Amino acid sequence: MLDEVIGEWGLPSRPVVADAGYGDATEFRLGLTERGLTYALAVSPTATAHPAEAAPVTPAWKGTGRPPQPRYPDPPQDLKSLAMAAGRSAGRYVPWRHGSRKTPGNPTASMRSRFLALRIRPANRNIPRDSDGSLPECWLLAEWPPGAPEPTDYWLSTLPADTKLRHLVRLAKIRWRIEHDYRELKDGLGLDHFEGRSRLGWHRHVTLTAVAQAICTQLRRTPQAPAQA
């Protein structure tokens, strides 16, 4: 699907976001990287990685058998352990969208939480290594809500190392917009109201609802013209 959108439709490349069902699949992440696509994918806290500063070493060769290859001296840790080792104080509060329920303590109705971002090296036997045996770096983003004893959500991202935390959070949390759009498609525009039996009819129905949503989105983003005097 991504190949079709970018190669055949000619749409510009954008970072890919997805839930842990995709993020936990190493092959999917590698496929995005091979296509030159960056991503911010939710992952399970049980996924493993090395800290970014970890470096592989080559054991001494005794002159018999196959020469040893570079490898990390310490085993990888799960993402939860890496985040817990960094500690709550490593995070910062970041607003990630504006809500609709304003309160005296939150007049802007902003949705905010504590997030921490760490540079890590995901560990998996299928991930290609550099010539020195090192694994590629990426971001680990973890959400640690106030009052929670540990982080609740985790993401891996291949955005550049100089990416600001606010941008990482915005991208990781943009899935709420996707879910909102899907709900609008179903409930407001009738995506799930199709009762035909042909594939052609279903294709036309989906196309019309998608066009209707695109028009609604454009209207929301277009500043209202001043009223006529």
TrEMBL record:
Return the InterPro entries for the record. IS701-like (IPR039365), IS701-like_DDE_dom (IPR038721), RNaseH-like_sf (IPR012337)
Q: Which SUPFAM superfamilies match?
A: Ribonuclease H-like
Q: Where is the composition biased (Low complexity)?
A: 48-60
Region annotation Disordered: residue ranges?
A: 48-77
Residue ranges constituting the Transposase IS701-like DDE domain according to the UniProt record: 1-102
Superkingdom of the organism of origin? Bacteria
Q: Which Pfam families match?
A: DDE_5 (PF13546)
**Stretches with biased composition (Pro residues):** 67-76
Q: What is this protein called?
A: SRSO17 transposase
Give the organism, scientific name: Amycolatopsis jiangsuensis
